[in-house]
Specification:
This protein has helices at 4-11, 54-59, 70-75, 91-103, 119-130, 148-153, 174-182, 197-200, 203-210, 283-297, 302-311, 338-350, 371-383, 398-406, 420-430, 448-455; strands at residues 2-3, 14-17, 23-24, 26-28, 38-41, 64-67, 85-87, 110-114, 136-138, 162-166, 186-189, 222-226, 241-246, 253-260, 265-269, 273-277, 320-324, 327-332, 357-362, 389-393, 414-417, 436-440. With 460 residues, it is of the alpha/beta class. The protein has a nine-stranded mixed beta sheet with strand order 9-10-8-11-12-13-14-15-16, sandwiched between helices. Strands 17-18-22-19-20-21 form a six-stranded mixed beta sheet, with helices on both faces. It contains 16 helices and 22 strands. The radius of gyration is 24 Å and the shape is globular. It folds into three domains: 2-91, 3-Layer(aba) Sandwich (Udp-n-acetylmuramoylalanyl-d-glutamate--2,6- Diaminopimelate Ligase, Chain: A, domain 1); 106-311, UDP-N-acetylmuramoyl-L-alanine:D-glutamate ligase (3-Layer(aba) Sandwich); 320-455, Mur ligase, C-terminal domain (Protein-Tyrosine Phosphatase, Chain A).
Length: 460
């Protein structure tokens, strides 16, 4: 994959031990899974420090080591044995620089997908469609940051015809860096919403960060954007080759006649093509439209698109439906922010049920100074929906409860708890046959544990 000399040149590293004549066959940041002859890069994170595992990586056959901690150089470099050891200022930066160099070896299209909501589902939908004709590389799950994206790039092989890579950001500059690594041939921005406001302060900050993607698009790259989004609709420029999607007929790809049942969401594309999704919720229509817009630019036919989307399954913990003792559970536990929660509550409100409709809402995190007001606003809107009971989990979600009461929901219909176990017990007592229950909260809230308590088993 790289010679040690190439690593020195690409990263600006200093060789402090060993020879520059060696080679590495791959790149790893995990001493537990490193393979013989791979390069070990000692990443230092908030909860871990890869420098502590250099000795183990060496024992497992690492061909070279990249590190940044000068203290390690002085006290423990002997543990690396005779293998080349390279010091850099920042190992995360070095990881990205090597990924940029490696990506340049592949003259294939790379599609970068970003946005506040729907990134992962859009990426997976697009992969499902494009795989009808091509060998497609994707980054797994939500590994979309300054570590996950480079590691995905290193998985590129000659067999791949193209790559679809999701990129995320929790602070300004990250999209710029990740898209620089990828040098995208096409870009997708799904929407601009109130996520990571702790870092971005406001929606304008989110918008500025997401459009960093445009800085590194190739000359003729298409930029697929949500025309219904108030920020993205005005995004334009002489060098931007825009392709738009939305619910308005003025879009290049538009949906109308949207229908939802217990098993699918369907719509009519551009007034001609009937599309059926097993992915539930109106928000997934947007994800499908974005995927279709990109797929058509690669020559995929509408019949292939229909077939791929008809069998597509949403990633785990995203609008998953299953029954327990005749109670319908809607598990949307992967994450939560005001826009995604509003979409899920809309789905619950419109869901056909003979029993009660119960919303179980956990805290939405990383919303900064606006957190309380955003929770309150969601609660107020919830009160206007066809939802019978509200259960909240966590200190911030008490504001959802307050908002719901202010919006007209009775106190008897609202229950607040500090832990998922308390909420699970309350749900177990409240829910009965034919009821429908939505469970949603930020990832750190681990709302899926409510389901485990309620069902007595884990969701699969």
């Amino acid at each position: 994959m790289f010679t040690v000399k190439e690593i020195l040149e690409r990263t600006g590293a200093k060789l402090v031990k060993g020879s520059s004549r060696g080679k590495v066959s791959g790149v790893s940041i995990d001493s537990r899974t490193i393979k013989p002859n791979e390069l070990f890069i000692a990443i230092k994170g908030e909860r871990f420090d890869g420098h502590a595992f250099i000795e183990e990586a060496s024992r497992r056959g690492a061909a070279a080591i990249v590190f940044s901690d000068k203290g390690y150089e002085k006290t423990a470099l002997k543990h690396a044995g005779a293998i080349p050891s390279l010091r850099v200022k920042n190992t995360v930066w070095a990881l990205g620089a090597l990924a940029y160099s490696y990506r340049a070896r592949f003259k294939i299209p790379v599609i970068a997908v970003t946005g506040s909501n729907g990134k992962t589902t859009t990426k997976e939908m697009l992969k499902a469609i494009l795989s009808k004709r091509f060998s497609v590389l994707c980054n797994p799950g939500t590994q979309n940051n300054h570590i996950g994206v480079p590691l995905a790039v290193f998985k590129l092989q000659k067999k791949h015809h193209l790559a679809v890579i999701e990129i995320g950001a929790s602070r300004a500059g990250e999209i710029d860096r990740l898209s620089w690594i990828l040098q995208p041939s096409a870009g997708v921005i799904t929407n601009i919403g109130p996520a990571h406001l702790e870092s971005f302060k406001n929606l304008q900050g989110v918008f500025k960060t997401k459009i960093e993607l445009t800085r590194n698009l190739s000359k003729d790259a298409k930029l697929v954007i949500n025309q219904d989004d108030r920020f993205l609709s005005g995004l334009n420029g002489p060098d931007l080759h825009r392709v738009t999607f939305g619910f308005n007929r003025s879009c290049d790809f538009y949906a109308e006649g949207i229908k939802q049942t217990e098993k699918e969401t369907s719509f009519v594309l551009n007034g001609k093509h009937h599309i059926a999704l097993k992915a539930l919720g109106r928000h997934n229509v947007y994800n499908a439209l974005a995927s279709i817009a990109v797929a058509k630019s690669f020559g995929i036919g509408y019949n292939e698109i229909k077939d791929a989307l008809s069998i597509f399954k949403a990633p785990p913990m995203r609008m998953q439906l299953f029954d327990v003792n005749n109670v319908r559970i809607i598990s949307d536990c992967y994450n939560s922010n005001p826009d995604s929660l509003a979409s899920a509550l809309e789905f619950l409100s419109e869901y056909s049920s003979k029993g009660k409709k119960i919303a179980v809402c956990g805290d939405m995190l990383e919303l900064g100074e606006c957190a309380r007001s955003l929770h309150f606003d969601i609660g107020k809107k919830l009160a206007g929906r066809k939802i019978d009971f509200l259960i909240t989990v966590g200190p911030l979600s008490k504001n959802i409860a307050s908002g719901a009461h202010a919006g007209g929901m009775s106190k008897e219909s609202i229950r607040t708890y500090s832990s998922v176990s308390e909420a699970a017990n309350a749900l177990y007592e409240l829910a009965r046959g034919s009821d429908v229950v939505l469970i949603k909260g930020s990832r750190a809230m681990q709302m899926e544990n409510i389901i485990k308590c309620f069902t007595g088993s884990s969701i699969r």
